[in-house]
């Protein structure tokens, strides 16, 4: 990746950072949908420079900065993010397109992870799908626990445009090695194969 744009979230007393993440990622998603190819892929990636998983005293959090990458500067220009972020201009600061520095700290990839889910979520779903009582569904999931690694992942609360349902988009970060492969990304800018510079 050769070019990038940084977007910093600017929460206020009445608008929190988590709410802003939901709004920002929805607008970025809509912008990426506009430029997707026939395989629903885009040449633009997203990264979260302040990403952290939960630790002893901290919760998992994607931070307050979103970075968009592209190999071709024209792809970032074509995205026209200013148009999509117009309604959020008081709550986000977007920098101009810049070149990726030559002295990077390493490489990473960001992808969506489908969590195993909380027991309550599975019980509710089973009650609906199998027309069971709370007791019947709870008995089916007796002893079930959500995977520890899933609990530690940061997420962004999103809303599906198709079903109008809310969901938590969990973000997983992995170390990566430099690659000449030109990976494509989904319409959230995520991919397990995408190698992004870290700086």
| Fraction of residues in helix | 25-40%
**Regions with pLDDT < 50 over 5+ consecutive residues?**
none
Distance between the termini: 12 Å
SS class: alpha+beta
Order of helices and strands: EHEEHHEEEHHHEEE
Topology (SSEs and partners):
Blueprint: E1 3-9, H1 17-34, E2 44-47, E3 65-70, H2 73-79, H3 81-84, E4 92-94, E5 98-99, E6 106-113, H4 119-130, H5 134-140, H6 148-152, E7 155-159, E8 166-176, E9 196-198
Antiparallel strand pairs: 1-3, 1-4, 1-5, 2-3, 6-8, 6-9, 7-8
Helix pairs in contact: 4-5
Characterization of the model:
- By secondary structure, the protein is of the alpha+beta class.
- Helix content is 27%, strand content 25%.
- The chain has 6 helices and 9 strands, in the order E-H-E-E-H-H-E-E-E-H-H-H-E-E-E.
- Strands 1, 2, 3, 4 and 5 form a 5-stranded antiparallel beta sheet that branches.
- Strand 7 and strand 8 (166-176) form a beta hairpin.
